[in-house]
Design a protein that fits this description.
This protein is mainly α. The protein is built from eight helices and two strands. It has three domains: 1-32; 34-88, no CATH class; 89-161, Serine Threonine Protein Phosphatase 5, Tetratricopeptide repeat (Alpha Horseshoe), CATH 1.25.40. Helices cover 73% and strands 2% of the residues. Helix 4 runs antiparallel to helix 5.
């Protein structure tokens, strides 16, 4: 009987510690940007991570920033902040910019999409390299079909982390 009580106690304590860990982890993810003013201040001062987070907030419209409330979806502001982050060397921002130019502007911004796919791939994004391979294999985004370039980007994607 004592073994059962000890077993349940250990299980209960373990579960409680796990829940505390989850709460601390969730809180720490939002801790750097307690309010929108702080997020915008850090993004404006050149923090590439804050710029990316703000870009994501405007891209999806699904992020809640404490003092501002829900941030509405605004693709132009998203592109502005992603561009700032990408110019700081953020490969993720380069890739997201390329996808946004390809999808949001449906063919009118193909040159920009290609530029950012190439930048992301040069910085090691395997997703961007795979997309470039598909673009050159199928002749998308106003590019001519080029099997050599398609193979080049596919090889580069395999070598990327």
């Amino acid at each position: 009987m004592l073994v059962r009580k000890v077993g349940w106690t250990v299980l209960s304590v373990s579960l409680l510690l796990f829940l505390v860990f989850c709460v601390v982890l969730a809180y720490s993810l939002y801790l750097p940007y307690e309010n929108s003013r702080e997020l915008e201040r850090r993004a404006s001062s050149g923090d590439a991570t804050a710029q990316f987070v703000l870009g994501r907030a405007y891209q999806t419209g699904a992020m809640r920033v404490y003092s501002l409330g829900q941030i509405g979806r605004d693709p132009n502001k998203a592109i502005y902040w992603y561009t700032k982050s990408a110019l700081k060397g953020d490969a993720k921002a380069c890739y997201v910019l390329a996808v946004m130019y390809e999808q949001e502007f449906s063919g009118t911004k193909n040159r920009e999409a290609m530029h950012w796919y190439q930048e992301a791939a040069k910085q090691g994004s395997s997703d961007a390299a795979l997309r470039l391979s598909a673009i050159f294999r199928k002749g998308l985004l106003d590019q001519k079909v080029d099997p050599r370039l398609a193979d080049y980007w596919a090889r580069k994607a395999r070598r990327s982390p």
